[in-house]
Structures are given as structure tokens and as C-alpha cells.
Sequence to fold (190 residues):
Amino acid sequence: MIMPTDREPCVTAKLLHLVFLSTFWGMQIWVTFISGFVMDNNLNRHTYGFVQSRLFPFYLHVGSACAFFNLTIFAIYHPSDLLNEKEAFQIFIFFVCVTVAAVNAQWFGQLTSEIMADMHVIEQACGLGQDIGLSSNREAYSKLCDNNPKYRRLSSRLWLYHLLSSLCNLCCIVCNGYSLYYLAENLTTL
Fold:
């Protein structure tokens, strides 16, 4: 059993910390800034939504696990009675990341996928959803919102939960960006 210590972490602990932090960071950059734009420009609306509904739960849960393991490894090697201000802030950053990632995985991400699936059923009944790009046929979706109260409610809820999920994701990106900065600041050599 590993006990909290003021000694230098072993190479295995350092490696695991790097693996978890870089895995989460890499997934965040890929999912947030690359894959979404590629899928939006190449897949029809329903295929894009289907792929997202299958990938995002995995992405969000793996990210939560990575954040949890980062917090755990860091806390093991930085006992609370020996923390300096920067280490205490780093623990706080890891804690925020774990909390926000877990909320996103367990609630916002899941609700977003469920609402989107309900919207797709209505869209299919109206002959919509096969257009490439999310904004290529705005008039038809706007008209559907105007004419179908259920779709309008779903659309409003989707916007809200997607916004909250995006804010959680952005918060985790900032937390992991800070953690990478903290790590780089404390490297003695490459």
C-alpha cells in the first residue's frame, strides 16, 4: 500500500500521473476542437448525433477517471500538512476537475444525448436530419420549432444542457491546462 509521503514520487507514480493527464488533455483537444468540426462538415445531422451519443459517454467517463486518478496520485505524494500554496492550489484544481467531469459524465452529457435522440425521432417523422452540417437547413428546423411545441421544448432543453456540458468541458480544459503548466514549471529536465 502506498502511504502519503514527503519523498519524491517513484517513477511509476510520475509515469501514471503523466499518462492520465496527457490522456485526458489529448482527448479534450481532439473531441473539443477537431472531431466535432470534422463530423459536422462531413456527416448528416442524425449520423453526427448518433456518433456523438456513443462517443461522448465514453469520453466523459474516461476523462472523469483520469481526473480522479490524477487527484489521487498527487494527493498521495503531497500530504496536506506539508503542502505549499502552489501544491494546495494544484490539489484544488484537480478536485474541481474531478467534480466537474463527474457532473458532466453523470448528468449533463447523458441528458444531452437523451434529448437529442428524442429530437431526432421528431425530425425523422418530418423528413429532416439527412442534411450535412448542423446549420445547412436552419429554416426547416426553425419552422419545426415554431409548429411543434414538444420539439421547441426539447430544443430549448438541448441548448441548455449542451451549454452546461460545454462549460463543464471548458472548465476541465482550463484545469488540465493549468495542471500541465504546473507540471512543466516543476520539471527539472526534459
